[in-house]
Amino acid sequence: MAHTCSSCGLMADDASSLCNPTETIISCSYCNMPDVGVNHICKEKFAAMRYSCETCGKVAVDTTGICKPVEIV
Known about the structure:
Layout: E1 2-5, E2 11-12, E3 21-24, H1 43-48, E4 51-53, E5 59-60, E6 69-71
């Protein structure tokens, strides 16, 4: 189960890293697995990833939601 901060909207698997955590159930839109972690990456999702964050390593399909995007070559 993931957690969302009700103050700032950040998400984390560990509630202790958020200032005002609430429980959130996240489902993967690629593989339809229910209740995945914040950093879940399935095979289908990984194949679609084109960018990673230079700071934290988060991967994404586009540059939205990544603070320092770098194209994965």
